[in-house]
């Protein structure tokens, strides 16, 4: 069983903010792969589907970003999901809008949701970092991550989320290199 986790903050005021890119990715997967409706379980919104004969759970923690690990841990414990079958999608300020990088393990890069998952689970899971850009000044970070994308940024992001969703089976099959090759070819075409 595979667990896909999209990180974000619950509530309509956060719905299309930069920090909620993980939720946006989860919603793109839910639309594309006929996931069941989300149900409130394990301190999160949980849905399920089958992708390439693999049972896949899709989680949007509802704990607020800083406590995301509580929800991820509860799902993994209940379904006995190994850490190397967890894939987390989250925002990254060090990447330009829409740019994507995949890695397994490593540091949190200052991301509080990732820090909390690491605290509860350990760090050896796949992370899909989705670029949101960064503000010019460090003291603007909080307001920036809670701001909405510009019209042009939203177009770029929507196209990338569709591309991530289209190539999701490669991540599920643990073919991160193939996934990145597919995305990088398109990113060049789209000028990202």
What does this structure look like?
This protein is of the alpha/beta class. The chain has a single domain, classed as Rossmann fold (3-Layer(aba) Sandwich). A 7-stranded mixed sheet has the order 2-3-4-1-5-7-6, with helices on both faces. The protein is globular. It starts with a strand and ends with a helix. The model has no long low-confidence stretch (mean pLDDT 94).
Keywords, please?
single chain, 192 residues, alpha/beta, Rossmann fold, seven-stranded mixed β-sheet, 7 strands
Summarize the structure.
With 192 residues, the chain is α/β, with parallel strands linked by helices. 39% of the residues lie in helices and 22% in strands.
């Amino acid at each position: 069983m595979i667990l896909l986790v999209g990180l974000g903050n619950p509530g309509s005021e956060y719905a299309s903010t930069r920090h909620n890119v993980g939720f946006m990715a989860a919603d793109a997967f839910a639309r594309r792969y006929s996931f069941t409706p989300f149900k409130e379980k394990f301190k999160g919104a949980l849905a399920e589907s089958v992708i390439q004969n693999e049972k896949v759970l899709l989680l949007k923690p509802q704990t607020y970003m800083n406590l995301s690990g509580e929800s991820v841990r509860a799902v993994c414990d209940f379904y006995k999901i190994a850490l190397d079958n967890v894939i987390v999608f989250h925002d990254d300020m060090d990447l330009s809008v829409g740019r994507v990088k995949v890695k397994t393990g490593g540091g949190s890069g200052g991301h509080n949701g990732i820090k909390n998952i690491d605290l509860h689970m350990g760090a050896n899971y796949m992370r899909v970092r989705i670029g949101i850009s960064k503000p010019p000044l460090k003291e603007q970070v909080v307001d920036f991550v809670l701001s909405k994308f510009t019209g042009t940024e939203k177009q770029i992001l929507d196209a990338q989320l569709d591309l991530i969703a289209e190539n999701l089976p490669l991540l599920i099959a643990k073919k991160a290199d193939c996934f990145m090759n597919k995305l990088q070819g398109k990113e060049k075409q789209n000028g990202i």
